[in-house]
From TrEMBL:
Manner of cofactor binding, per the entry note: Binds 1 potassium ion per subunit.
Name of the protein: Bifunctional NAD(P)H-hydrate repair enzyme
Sequence positions that bind (6S)-NADPHX: 57-61, 130-136, 141, 159, 319, 370, 437
Cofactor(s) needed: Mg(2+); K(+)
Domain YjeF C-terminal: residue ranges: 224-497
PROSITE patterns linked to this entry: YJEF_C_2 (PS01050), YJEF_C_3 (PS51383), YJEF_N (PS51385)
Length: 499
C-alpha cells in the first residue's frame, strides 16, 4: 500500500482522470460511497448523524456520504459550513444530486445553531477540509472543530481529520480529533507521524477505482502481513545449520550482559543457524545460561573483535558501552567491507565519527536508531526528526549509503537509494529496555537467511511488532510485556506468517 504526500495524491487524481479517462464526478461518487460503507461499522440505525460539509473534494464527498446514508434510512443532518459560492466543480454537481434526491441541507449561519444539532447527535462525520490544508485553521473551521472535539459523540473523519496537514513538517495546527478515519485511496504521511497520527484515531483505507498500473510510484509504502507472507524465505527440507547463516554479535559488558544475550537468543529464535558472541569475558557466565546454543569467541590482541572471516552477518553495539577508547572496534568493523553489518545502541554513538567511511563498504550496512540516537548521528534535534522523519531518513540513508531503520510506533525503513517502507505493528508494551536488542537479533537472523536485505529488514520489523501484538491479545498486557517475552513469542508469529 503506497504512502503519499498531498501533491502525489493530486497527481493520482490527475492520472486517473486524464490517462484512464475517469470522470471526476465518478471518482467522487466512488469515494463517498466507499467511505460510507466503511463508516457504517461505527454507526447504528438509531444514531442521529451530523455530516459537516466543506468546500472542495472533501465537501463533495460529504454530500455523497450524506445522500447515501439518507438513502439507507439513517437519521442525518447535512450541514454545509461554507457559503454557496464556495461549492464549485464536482462538489457542486454532487450538491445538485443531493438536492434533486429530495434531501434538505442546512447552511451554517452561526455556530450556535450547529452546537444545538451536535448536542442532539450521536455521530459527527467530518467532511470539511481535505489534503490541501496548510497552516492553522481559520473561521468557521476552528470554531466548529472545537465544538466537535468537546462533545461526547463518535467523531468520524473523511480521508484525514480537518486541520491535520497531509504532509510531514508542520507542527503548529489545531484539528478535528477523530475516533476513526476512513482514508481515501492511500494513507498520507501524517498518518504515521507521532504528533499527527493521534488525530486520526483508528483508520483504514478505501479503494475508489483509480487504476494502480497507471500511477507514479511514490517509493514509499506500508509493509503488511501479505508482504511478509510473500517474501519470507521458506525453510528447505534438506538444509543444515550452515544454510541459515553464521552470525557474530559483538557487545555486552559485565554491567550489561542481558542486551547481547537477548540479541543472540532472538537471532537463534528467528532461524539463524549459528551464532557466536564476542563479549567481555567477565560477562560470559551471565550470558551462557540464557542462550546455551550460542558459542563465544575471543577478540584478537586483547580486544573485543575476533577474526571476522567466515561470518554471514555481524551485529554490533548492544550493551557495549560508549567509551571513546572502544572506537577502534568500529574502525575495524567498517574495514571489513564484505560482511553485512548491523549497528545498534552504543555502537551508534561510537559510529558518528566514522560516517564518511560507510559508503565505501561493499556489503550492506544497517543502522537501527531510535529518534534520540538518530539525532546524535545526524546532528538534528529530536523535534526536527519527529516532525519530518521521512525526509530526514531519506537524506541520511542516501548520503551515507546505508539502510536506516528509524524505530518508533511507525518504524520507517529506508534503503540506500531512498526507497522507504513503514511498519506500524507493535504496541506500547515494546517501550521497555531490551526491545531494540531483540529487534537487532531478528534483523541479523533474517539478513543472513534472505537474499534481499531490504525485505529482511522490513519483515524483521513486522515480525517483532506483530509478536508483541499477539502476546498482548493473548495473556500479556502492555504493562507487563518484557523483551524476553517477545523472543519466546516469535514461534507463534513464524507459524502464522511462514509458508
Amino acid at each position: 500500500m503506497d504512502i503519499v504526500t498531498a501533491q502525489e495524491m493530486y497527481e493520482r487524481d490527475r492520472v486517473a482522470m486524464e490517462a484512464a479517462g475517469l470522470d471526476g464526478k465518478m471518482l467522487m461518487e466512488n469515494a463517498g460511497r466507499a467511505v460510507t460503507y466503511d463508516l457504517l461499522r461505527h454507526i447504528r440505525k438509531e444514531h442521529t448523524i451530523v455530516v459537516l460539509i466543506g468546500a472542495g473534494n472533501n465537501g463533495g464527498d460529504g454530500f455523497v456520504i450524506a445522500r447515501t446514508l439518507l438513502n439507507l434510512g439513517y437519521d442525518v443532518e447535512a450541514w454545509q459550513v461554507v457559503p454557496d459560492a464556495k461549492i464549485t466543480g464536482d462538489a457542486e454537481a454532487h450538491k445538485r444530486i443531493f438536492q434533486a434526491s429530495g434531501h434538505p441541507y442546512r447552511l451554517l449561519k452561526s455556530s450556535e445553531d450547529l452546537n444545538t444539532s451536535l448536542g442532539r447527535a450521536d455521530v459527527c462525520i467530518d467532511a470539511m477540509l481535505g489534503i490541501g490544508v496548510k497552516g492553522r485553521l481559520k473561521e468557521p473551521y476552528v470554531d466548529i472543530v472545537r465544538l466537535c472535539n468537546e462533545k461526547s459523540i463518535v467523531r468520524l473523519a473523511v480521508d484525514l481529520p480537518s486541520g491535520v496537514p497531509a504532509d510531514e513538517g508542520q507542527e503548529d495546527f489545531e484539528a478535528f480529533q477523530a475516533h476513526y478515519t476512513s482514508i481515501i485511496e492511500a494513507p498520507k504521511q501524517s498518518a504515521f507521524l507521532q504528533h499527527t497520527q493521534p488525530y486520526y484515531g483508528e483508520w483504514s483505507v478505501v479503494e475508489i477505482g483509480i487504476p494502480p498500473k497507471q500511477l507514479p510510484d511514490p517509493r514509499r509504502r506500508l509493509w503488511d502481513g501479505a508482504d511478509v507472507k510473500r517474501t519470507l524465505p521458506e525453510r528447505d527440507a534438506h538444509s543444515h545449520k550452515g544454510s541459515h547463516g553464521k552470525g557474530l554479535i559483538i557487545g555486552g559488558s559485565p554491567l550489561m550482559p542481558g542486551s547481547v544475550a537477548m540479541t543472540a537468543r532472538a537471532s537463534l529464535r528467528s532461524g539463524a543457524g549459528l551464532i557466536a558472541v564476542s563479549t567481555d569475558p567477565e560477562a560470559i557466565p551471565a550470558i551462557s545460561p540464557y542462550v546455551q546454543e550460542a558459542t563465544f569467541v575471543e577478540g584478537r590482541d586483547g580486544g573485543q573483535v575476533p577474526d571476522l572471516e567466515g561470518y554471514d552477518g555481524i551485529a554490533f553495539g548492544m550493551g557495549f558501552g560508549r567509551d571513546s577508547k572502544k572506537e577502534n572496534v568500529v574502525e575495524r568493523l567498517i574495514e571489513e567491507k564484505e560482511t553485512p553489518l548491523l549497528v545498534d545502541a552504543d555502537g551508534l554513538y561510537l559510529l558518528k565519527g566514522f560516517l564518511p567511511a560507510l559508503e565505501k563498504r561493499e556489503a550492506p550496512t544497517v543502522l537501527t536508531p531510535h529518534p534520540g540516537e538518530f539525532a546524535h548521528l545526524s546532528g538534528l534535534s529530536i523535534k526536527e526528526i519527529l516532525n519530518s522523519p521521512f525526509s530526514h531518513s531519506k537524506n541520511f540513508a542516501e548520503e551515507h549509503g546505508v539502510y536506516l531503520v528509524l524505530k518508533g510506533p511507525s518504524t520507517i525503513i529506508t534503503s540506500p537509494d531512498g526507497e522507504q517502507r513503514v511498519d506500524i505493528s507493535g504496541n506500547a508494551g515494546l517501550a521497555k529496555g531490551g526491545s531494540g536488542d531483540v529487534l537487532s537479533g531478528i534483523l541479523l537472523s533474517l539478513m543472513m537467511q534472505t537474499e534481499d536485505v531490504w525485505d529482511a529488514l522490513s519483515n524483521g520489523c513486522f515480525l517483532h511488532g506483530t509478536t508483541a501484538d499477539l502476546l498482548v491479545q493473548d495473556g500479556h498486557s502492555k504493562v507487563d510485556l518484557l523483551a524476553s517475552d517477545v523472543i519466546e513469542g516469535l514461534s507463534r508469529t513464524f507459524r502464522t506468517f511462514s509458508s
